[in-house]
DNA sequence: CCCTGATTCGC
DNA sequence: GCGAATCAGG
């Protein structure tokens, strides 16, 4: 298959419409998903959110060349501090001034001073008192009252009300707050009431009177 | 493993 | 220009 003008137009339309490359390839037929993507790029069509390039900085950070050698700031290339005279005192001075400001706290850092835990029966590890959360206070007892349906849906036939004896004709659209079903007595043997059966089932017109359906945009879905 | 789009590269 | 192969995230 080649990229005729007509097929390119369809590709553009479907791509712009937001269809996935697979769907477009399926729709056009005779081409692979890769072919569609490749062609779309060559046409300069707007790129769509790629799972791979979702966030530029993260991808960049991950792809950052190891050989680029972003030196860790902690490890300064500067020469190691020379050991000076008076061996006893300098070590203290080497510490940052900030450390001197709050010496007691920094000394008991968790890493240098692991907390001691005792093992309970069965081998579980006991928490220290400081790790324990305050218990969640029990909710005060309340009387449970059935939820009141919103005014919109009150007296309407919901999905749960459906059965064989009532009309299942949808009123409105799913997701809308007042979406419900007709709920009138169903025409026996049919899922809808008489009125909606008249809408759902149209009498078959004589063959010669039928007009061919108008062409769908972009040729419509491919029939397989 | 399935999906997705991007990119590469031999044709 | 084309698209399979490959990559890489969801």
From TrEMBL:
The source's superkingdom equals: Bacteria
- Which sequence ranges form a coiled-coil region, renumbered to this chain? none
Protein name, per record: GcrA cell cycle regulator
Task: Extract the InterPro entries matched here.
Answer: GcrA (IPR011681)
For region Disordered, the annotated ranges are 41-157, 205-224
Annotated Low complexity bias = 88-111
Look up and give the organism this protein is from: Allosphingosinicella flava
Gene3D superfamilies reported for this sequence: Homeodomain-like (1.10.10.60)
